[in-house]
Amino acid sequence: MSSAVQLTVKEVFDLLRDDLAAIEAEFERDTISSVPAITDIGAYLRAGGGKRIRPALLLLSAKLLGYNGPGAVRLGAVVEIVHTATLVHDDIIDEAEIRRGRPSANTTWGNSRCVLAGDWLYMQAFKIALQERKLKVLDVLIDLTQQMVEGELLQMERLGQCVSQQEHFDLIFRKTACLFATSMRLGAILGGASEEEERRLEEYGRNLGMAFQIVDDVLDLTASEEILGKPVASDLREGKVTMAVIHALERCTPSERELVETVLRERAFESVSHAQILEILQRYGAIDAAHARAAEYSEAARKAICTFPDSEIKRALLWVPEFVVEREK
Question: What integer is the mean pLDDT of 132-139?
Fold first, then answer.
């Protein structure tokens, strides 16, 4: 990326600071219920933090097209609520005990309450989105929710199996990239984008989301528990193969493949150590291959918005893919 478009994290978030603060306040208001358990779970999840990258993308997409109305804050809260609901359900399905360095909500409130709280959050997101009085917004959110649920079901069916790269990319689109694409698309709808502008912004979000998840999966394998806020190699422990592992499996010896399959079968590093798996990945350049593919998606995201006029907002959008690929947590 040329120095002309390089920005810092601070500069990008300075552009969005007031709107992100408004989204946080909206998020807080929207997760209060007359049922104390829902309010308590909502407050706990909100306090867990997160990058808020999805509402930030929605804001940038809307601002790129000159929109500055209240709908961006409202829908920014919607996409964060949807994201939070998916995390609640994911932790239950994965039987996760840790999320962002703290006990997951289901370990505190139990699976039954958290399933219902997640359902409530989904419905609350749709209720808030209705305030925009735009059928297209609802259509987009319904399609998003169906894609994510289908992705979760497909992943459950493939646990412990060695899927192909294409199957894996389909899964990470459904589970992650579609929400990035939807965030960009909702901003485009608010900004009155043409069909071509909406398509380009959606493409930006899809490619960015793919890069984000590939990097996330690599960090799951290589970062420390302190940085991750959860046990290392959680994906393998849960029976999930990700891009770097698939890359190695397509090239390794039968005995090396058996080591990986043992971890997937045992759902733990008992007979095989984490270090042994990392050694196999390094031997076949799997980590580098995953980073290279993430960089390709990152560049595709930047190219998707190259036709938009130069502006401070466009420069921020051009910077975000670099931040996603180079992040360490």
Answer: 95
pLDDT in tens, 3-55: 334 566 678 778 899 999 999 999 999 999 999 999 999 999 888 877 799 99
Residue-range definition of the domain harbouring residue 251? 3-326
Q: Which residues contact 108 (CB under 8 A, 6 or more apart)?
A: 44
125 is written with which tokens?
A: 């997101």
Contacts of residue 61, defined as CB under 8 A and 6 or more positions apart, other chains included, come to 183, 184, 185, 186, 187, 188, 191, 201, 205, 317
Sole residue written with tokens 């493409």: 203
Calculate the CA 133 to chain-centre distance.
27
pTM of the shown model: 0.93
Report the candidate in 218, 230, 189 with the shortest Cα–Cα distance to residue 293: 218
Three-class DSSP category at 106: helix
Range list of β-strands (E), the chain: 98-99, 102-103
Q: Domain tally for the chain?
A: 1
Residue 167: give its domain's CATH number: 1.10.600.10
What gap in Å lies between CA 211 and CA 82, rounded to an integer?
20
- What is residue 117's predicted lDDT score, i.e. its pLDDT? 94
Task: State the DSSP code for 32.
Answer: -
| Matching residue, tokens 């980590």 | 287
State the alpha helices, DSSP H only, in 95-134: 105-109, 111-129
Q: Which stretch of DSSP H or E encloses residue 144?
A: helix 135-157
Indicate the length of the chain as a whole number.
329
